[in-house]
Amino acid sequence: MEYIWFLAAAVLFLYIQYRRNEALRRRLFVERLKEQWGQVPDREYEEGDLQRIRRYFETFRGEECVLDDITWNDLDMDEVFMLLNHTNSSAGEEALYRMLRTPCADPAPLRERDRLADVFTQNPKLRLELETQLAGIGKNNRLALCDYIVNLSGQPCHSNVSHYMGIAALAAAAVGVAVWPETGILALGGVIGFQMITYYRQKAQVEAYFSSVSQVVRLAVHGRAIGGLTGGEELAPYLDPLKQSVKELEPFCAKSRFISTGKEMGGSPLDLIMDYVKMLLHTDLIAYNQIVRMTKEKEAAIWSVTEILGQLECGLAIASFRACLGQWCRPQLAAGEPPYLHGEGLYHPLVDRAVPNTIHAVRSQLITGSNASGKSTFLKTVALGAVLAQTTYTAPGLSYQAPLYQIYTSMALHDSLSNGESYYIAEIRSLKRILDRGQDPLPVLCMIDEVLRGTNTVERIAASAQILRSMTEMNLLCFAATHDAELAELLEPWYENGHFSEEIADGDVLFSYRLQPGRARSRNALRLLELMGYKEEVLRQAQAMAERFGQTGIWSMEVKERAHGRAGTEIHRNGNHSSRGGRELDALEPEPAKERQRRGGSGEQSGRHTEHGG
Fold it and tell me: What CATH number belongs to 332-522?
């Protein structure tokens, strides 16, 4: 008898310690939630995490406007997603990714997201309670939450008769121990062994789906707790339908105590005891078969709970993102208006100490400038501002006004060895997808960096000029960056010109990263070569070639072999080659270049200039 009391006291002590540790863990977790609010999420991503997270978007991708893979990669949206990913559950994480991939074409859901974010910003207590419950659902490391649900609903239903017969055999053997002790003990041992063997054998067949059951159970259990949050009147549009859907899933909650939640054996004394009970009575296998049957009947309710919890956690992520940003604004979005974009103090949230820029564009923009001056970053800033405005109702900057857009980019392309596709082919495919959407009722906002850079100069300029001009006849606003000064001159009647420039000081190149009106007048490629230590003779000859081309329109190689009587080679603008003596080269002056000189090399723009500031 004394041993029984000692054992009971030990179990009670362990249970008390377990409860104290759980309380401490919860308190520390809440403190961590408070500290991380409004901070850059510190989660580390492993290989395959983002592929898993995007499964919800891919599974339920509809006909609505989405950011395609080219645009997503051009804008480094994986990094943007990580910056916004202040979530604690798979439901919220996957919903957030889907939200960023699907810019809204209707301002109504954006205003609701804004209201929801304000609720969490103004009510920290409610926010912490919701975050704690969502953390109870947790995040998955193997499959997407949507895959767990799909896999579970697709499983065949099995009968529990064999499990009930095993339980009956155990009861009969236990009775036999009292009536025929020796025979009963032998029979009981045999039944226990049989139950354990069949348990592990059958569990091995469904173990891959046990985690799916656990996910659905956690959704139901914590969804029920979230539906009963106090002080959540402002969340009534979410909590009322959540309660209704959870009510349909009550049987899942009733079975939850019999289903393994993925914890290791021995997590607590009660867990250890329950593990042995499951082995003998097959309670989790019985519950599994019952839940598979219920999943098929209540699948719509499961998806409803998943979607509602995802929407709530997206509101939390938006609120935390706003607290993380230094400066942000609510965008002014309109539907059914011609393309335009006004943004003041826009900056890129992934760039440290980003320089803000202002743009007032009522027609397409052509951005020129020297290397590393900020053209590409500016294009990404404008495009990302549009994406965030149409997904989170948050724009990094002082103000943002624009219609609702389809957003496309063609910037960081590359050739594909696996597809046997050259860089140029990848470019024209990328541009074609934009042109194909240019006649849609919903306007297109597109960013193009160095259009057709994958081909020769003559055809690049000719094709680029015509493609960019054709875009001005579409329901489309284009921002294009180029190094080709010829394009800025050719497209001036259709495009507003802006540029980025730099200063040379103390042997270094200094960039302001400020957008300025007009075409770029400076070049820095040769200067950068000099700063990197290239030979002076190479740089001198390259500078002479550039100056000669600017004066004559002819490329000429002034090679040293001329001193030994060998002629140089000159290349005209039209691509023809000829060999002439050096003196004759000096006298060449094509008509187009003379005509340019008579105009004084004017680079003045006609019409309206882009306004800038920041």
Answer: 3.40.50.300
